[in-house]
Amino acid sequence: MGPLPHVPAPAPHAASGERGPRTGRLDLEELRTAVSRGRIDTVLLALPDLQGRLKGKRYGAAHFLDRVAGGHADLCAYLLATDAAMNPVDGFALTSWENGYADLALAPDLSTLRMMPWQRRTAVLLGHALTAREHRPLAVAPRQMLLDQIARLAAHGLHPMAGLESEFLLYEGVFGETPRIGDGGLKPLTATNLDYALDHPPVLDRFLRRLQSALAGAGSPVEAVKTEAAPGQVEVTFPYGPVLEACDTHVLFKHAVRTLAGRAGLTATYMAAPQTGVASGLHVHVSLWRSGDPALVTLDGDLSDVARHAIGGLVEALPQLAPLYAPNTNSYRRFAPGSFAPTGTTWGHDNRTCAIRVVGRGSGLHLEVRVPGADANPYLAASAVLAAISHGLDRNLTPPPPRTTNAYLAQDAPSLPLTLDEALAAFRESPLAQQAFGPEVVSHYAHLAQVELAHQRHAVPDTEQNRWFTQA
User: Fold this and answer.
1) CA–CA separation, 254 and 263 (whole Å)
2) Whole-number Å distance between alpha carbons of 165 and 238
3) Which residues contact 203 (CB under 8 A, 6 or more apart)?
4) Domain chopping of the chain, boundaries
5) Which of 62, 245, 342, 449 could serve as 323's disulfide partner, Cβ 3.0–4.6 Å?
6) Phi then psi for 129, rounded to 5 degrees?
7) Above 60 in pLDDT, residue 6?
8) In terms of pTM, does the model score above 0.85?
9) Residue 340: which residues within 8 A CB-CB, separation 6 or more?
10) Exposed/middle/buried for 101, CB within 10 Å: 0-12, 13-18, 19+?
11) Alpha carbon distance 228, 108 (integer Å)
C-alpha cells in the first residue's frame, strides 16, 4: 500500500461509500425492492467467530424482512467458544455443558447489508453478538472487542482508519480429497516466483478476475492485486476506510476467495506458514484522525507527538498481545530472520525489516503494522493494534530510535514470542492486556490458546514421522 490520499475521517458510526444496486451495498428498502423483483431470495446473517470465519444462518429473504431484520436471531453461543474444528470444549465461561450450551442473540447490523455475488440471488450482513436475555454486547465477540478499542481512542478525540493487506496461497486440487501438501499432494497453482508479475497463467488470471468482480459487486472493490514471491501466493489490498468496515470487508473477502477457489478446483489457505520457507501476512495499515485532520503528522511533515506515543505503545505492547494476532502454533513459524516477517518490535521509516513501518507522507503518512499473519482474525489483530496505540497515548510513551538498517540484527529490541506457549504466558500475566480488554476477554482468549496448545501436543506431525520413523 502506497501513500494515502487525503481522506477526511467519517463519523465513527457512518458507513462509507454510496449505496444501491449498482454499488452492491443495500439499505432495507433496497433489499425489499430486490426481493419483490426476484433478484434476492436468500439472506445470510453472519457472525464472525473466534477464528474470523463467517458463521450464521441462511434465511428466506421474505422471512428475514418480516421477522429478523427489525429484531434478532438466536444462535448457539458455542460459536464463540469452540476450537478451530468447531468442537465444543470445556473451560469457557461463556457457555459449556454445565449451562446447557445456551443461545446468544445476533442483532442485524443493517449498515453492513450488501449483495453477495459469489452466491446466487443472495444478500449478506453481519450482526452484533448480544447476551440472550439482557441483550448486552458480548465482550468476547471479536467485532465487539474492536468496537471497544475504537471507543477508547475516541476518548482521546481520535478516529482510526485502516487498510488491510492480505496474503494467501492457491493450490491445485481440493484439500479434503488430497490432504497432503507438496510431493504427491496439492501443488501450488504456480511453480515459480511471480512477485509483481503481470503475465499470469490463464487459470490464475480467471480466478483473480472473478474475485475482483465479485468483491466489486459486493460494494468492496479491491485497491490492488499482485502475485507474491512464493509459488501460488497472492496479495490483495483494499482501499483505506473506517477500521471496523475494513475488518468486515476482510471476512467477506476470505469467504469469497474460498468459495471461488473451490468452484475452480483450487484450495486457498490463509495459514501463516503453510510450507517450510513460505509465509503469509496480514499487514494492518493504520492512521489516526482528529476532527477530519491527520493526527500522525505535523504541518511540517514530521511525526507528531501522537504518532510517537502510538509507536511507543506498539513497541511495548505488541509482545504481550500475541495470541490476538498469532493465534496458533503455526503462526510462530512465520517469525524468522530474512522472511519479511518481524522478529522483534522495531520501527523505522520505510523499512520492511521492522515490525512497525512508517510509510507515506503528508496526510497519507501512516503506520504499517507487519506483525499479524494471514491466519489472524482481523478484528482481533486490529484490536491488538489499537489497544497498543491507546496504551502509548495513555502513558505518553516515547519510542526507541528508529532502525535505519537491518532490524533482524537488532540485539536490544523487544522480541516477539517464539512460540504460542511463550505468547500465552505473556498474555495471561500482562496487566496491560487486563486493562485494555478486561479479565473476561483475557481469560477467554487465553483458554482458546490453551486449547490449541493441548491439541498440538498430542498430534504427531508429518515432519516428525518423516524424520524419525526409521531412525529412532
Assistant:
1) 14
2) 7
3) 189, 264
4) 28-138, 149-457
5) 449
6) -80, 130
7) no
8) yes
9) 279, 281, 352, 353, 370
10) middle
11) 37
Confidence class for position 365, pLDDT limits 50, 70, 90: very high
Please name which of 47, 94, 75, 88 lies closest in space to residue 379, comparing C-alpha atoms.
Answer: 47
If we measure between CA atoms, which residue out of 288, 67, 270 comes closest to residue 169? 270
Q: Which stretches of 80-223 are assigned E, i.e. beta strand?
A: 103-108, 114-115, 122-131, 159-172, 187-188
Cβ(164)–Cβ(292) below 8 Å = no
Task: Look at residues 379, 286, 254, 270 and name the one whose alpha carbon lies nearest to residue 325.
Answer: 379
Q: Grid coordinates standing for 73?
A: 436471531
Contact 24, 123 (CB under 8 A): no
C-alpha 409 chain-centroid distance: 29
- CA-to-CA dists, residue 66 to 299, 304, 331, angstroms: 53, 51, 44
Q: Is the CB of residue 341 less than 8 Å from the CB of residue 281?
A: yes
Domain 149-457 CATH class label: alpha beta
**Grid-cell match 428475514, residue found:** 64
Close Cβ partners of 57 (under 8 Å, ≥ 6 residues apart)? 44, 45, 73, 75
Contacts of 284 (CB under 8 A, 6+ apart): 162, 164, 368, 369, 372, 381, 382, 385
User: Which H or E run contains 387?
Assistant: helix 378-395
Residues near 37 by beta carbon (within 8 Å), at least 6 away in sequence: none
Distance CA 234, CA 9 (A): 30
Strands 241-242 and 159-172: antiparallel
CATH number given to 28-138: 3.10.20.70
Say how far residue 257 (Cα) sits from the centre of its chain. Answer: 14
Is 11 a residue whose pLDDT tops 60? Answer: no
Q: Which of 209, 201, 172, 197 is nearest to 187 (CA)?
A: 172
Three-state DSSP at 413 gives coil
pLDDT band at 19 (very low <50, low <70, confident <90, very high): low
Tell me the pLDDT tens digit for each residue of 193-241.
Answer: 999 999 999 999 999 999 999 999 999 999 999 999 999 999 999 999 9
pLDDT digits (tens, 9 = 90+) for 59-79: 999 999 999 999 999 999 999
**195 within 8 A of 228, measured Cβ to Cβ:** yes
Q: What does the DSSP 8-state code read for residue 68?
A: I
